[in-house]
Amino acid sequence: MASHGPVKDIERVDYSTKCCCRTTDEAYYQAPKQYFVRHPTLSRRKLTLTEPFNVPFDASTFEKVLIELEKASILSAAAAVTVDTEQSGGDNTQKPQWMKDLDKRQQRFLAACLGVTTWDGRDVCFYEEKLPKENDVVWVKVIQVNDTSAVVQLLEYGNHEGIIPYTEITRIRIRAIGKVIKVGRNEAAQVIRIDKEKGI
């Protein structure tokens, strides 16, 4: 039996290991949950459900998307992106036509599932909003640590930069902040305040 494919009876989907997706033209597909674990919204909410969730593709396009997600589950997402960049010479000239024709919403969805934050060299936002809301929990990458704060990139919001003050990193008195948070690591963080003028 194929790891993914169309289904007629959504009640027979094994939701313990698979999920059920509904396309824009009302077709249903089952696929392993691991295809979507990199997508922040799906992994937090949809993958725990025992019912179908919507995907922004018609059936024909989604079948091609599933093939790409199957590749990414075998390779790492980073390896898949590296191979694609090498083949395309840094642009999308070697991408299949269906990929070139994806709209922004579809690009965001596929990029999120692949675990990448760029699409053809452009930063990708996984949501319609350019910035998160206060109290949202976001996924960040630490890019700089100094004596008073850490600078991070919001991976789900087009790599917008944010600052985590020393006082918010730990309540324990330590000599070096670098012992608690390290450059290059991905961390979950809660948004305390948004500076809309600066865009962070």
Automatic annotation (TrEMBL):
| Pfam families the record matches | S1
What is a single cellular component term in the Gene Ontology annotation?
eukaryotic 48S preinitiation complex
Please give the PROSITE patterns that the UniProt record associates with this protein: S1
GO molecular function terms here? ribosome binding; RNA binding; translation initiation factor activity
Query: Residue limits of the S1 motif domain?
Result: 135-200
Q: Which InterPro entries match?
A: NA-bd_OB-fold (IPR012340), S1_domain (IPR003029), S1_IF2_alpha (IPR044126), TIF_2_asu (IPR011488)
**What are the coiled-coil residue ranges?**
none
Q: Which UniProt keywords apply?
A: Initiation factor, Protein biosynthesis
Specify whether Cytoplasm is a keyword of the entry. no
In the record, the note on similarity to other proteins reads: Belongs to the eIF-2-alpha family.
Q: What is this protein called?
A: Elongation initiation factor 2 alpha subunit, putative
